[in-house]
């Protein structure tokens, strides 16, 4: 068989066959006196196996490993890894479809796309014009997919849906423009920490990622008095979290 004939028989292109020769995946047959390659039935069988393996999703280096192991042990190992990788991709696709489904159920917002769990959390939050509440929403969107997760958002839901949280936001708004030694700071920080349920602390993963400089960037987003409230809240929450995990 000539190269075009073996390619047509197996269902690949002549260019593919030449590439397999070039990388050493398919041994190049002897040439006739006229310079043409002559392929045997064995060549066709090997080429067909290469095609089947690549159609399964194996990379060419993996195909080479499979072909080098006549006992088939390498094939079983590689196929197992391929199956695990496909399962991971399938899970990721399902997660993306969940996000798309939530988005399509609308209405679409300038914040999109968000995780379905965060969308549900934000839907239940009481309406407010508080700038501090708007900042909290922005921070949640920033951290969506980094620290957030179904368990975290589920633990946040009672707090987010509680109208009693709005006066706390309003008190934080009132500190806009105030100095970092304002006498209202300590009481507001204590009240904000007290509003955080233990269930939320339990939902925070111990190995959650941290970002260098994130705390400084967060505090810089507030006026001096507000930043001092947020700093104290973060400090007390870290202590609560540490005590909980140590107990």
TrEMBL record:
* InterPro entries xref list: DNA-bd_dom_put_sf, MerR-type_HTH_dom, MerR_fam
For molecular function, the Gene Ontology terms on record are:
DNA binding; DNA-binding transcription factor activity
As recorded in UniProt, coiled-coil segments are none
Asked if the keyword Metal-binding belongs to this entry, the reply reads: no
Q: Keyword check for Transferase, yes or no.
A: no
Q: Which residues form the HTH merR-type domain?
A: 1-69
Keywords attached to this Swiss-Prot or TrEMBL record, sorted alphabetically, are: DNA-binding
The record's listing under SUPFAM superfamilies reads: Putative DNA-binding domain (SSF46955)
Name this protein carries in UniProt: Transcriptional regulator, MerR family
| Origin species | Streptomyces violaceusniger (strain Tu 4113)
Q: What is the lineage of its organism?
A: Bacteria, Bacillati, Actinomycetota, Actinomycetes, Kitasatosporales
């Amino acid at each position: 068989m000539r190269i075009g004939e073996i390619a047509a028989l197996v269902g690949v292109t002549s260019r593919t066959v030449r590439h397999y020769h070039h990388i050493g995946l398919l041994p190049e047959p002897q040439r006739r006196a006229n310079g043409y390659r002559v392929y045997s039935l064995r060549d066709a069988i090997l080429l067909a196996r290469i095609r089947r393996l690549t159609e399964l999703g194996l990379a060419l280096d993996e195909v080479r490993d499979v072909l080098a192991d006549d006992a088939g042990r390498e094939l079983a190992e590689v196929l197992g890894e391929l199956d695990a990788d496909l399962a991971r991709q399938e899970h990721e696709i399902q997660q993306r479809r969940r996000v798309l489904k939530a988005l399509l159920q609308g209405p679409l917002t300038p914040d999109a796309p968000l995780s379905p769990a965060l969308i549900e959390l934000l839907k239940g939050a009481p309406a407010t014009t508080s700038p501090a509440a708007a900042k909290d929403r922005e921070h949640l969107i920033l951290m969506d997919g980094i620290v957030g997760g179904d368990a975290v958002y589920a633990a946040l839901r009672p707090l987010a849906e509680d109208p009693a949280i709005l006066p706390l936001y309003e008190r934080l708004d009132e500190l806009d423009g105030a100095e970092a030694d304002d006498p209202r700071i300590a009481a507001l920080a204590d009240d904000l920490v007290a509003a955080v349920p233990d269930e939320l602390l339990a939902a925070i993963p111990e190995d959650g990622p941290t970002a260098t400089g994130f705390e400084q960037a967060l505090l810089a987003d507030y006026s001096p008095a507000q930043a001092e409230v947020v700093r104290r809240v973060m400090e007390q929450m870290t202590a609560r979290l540490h005590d909980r995990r140590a107990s």
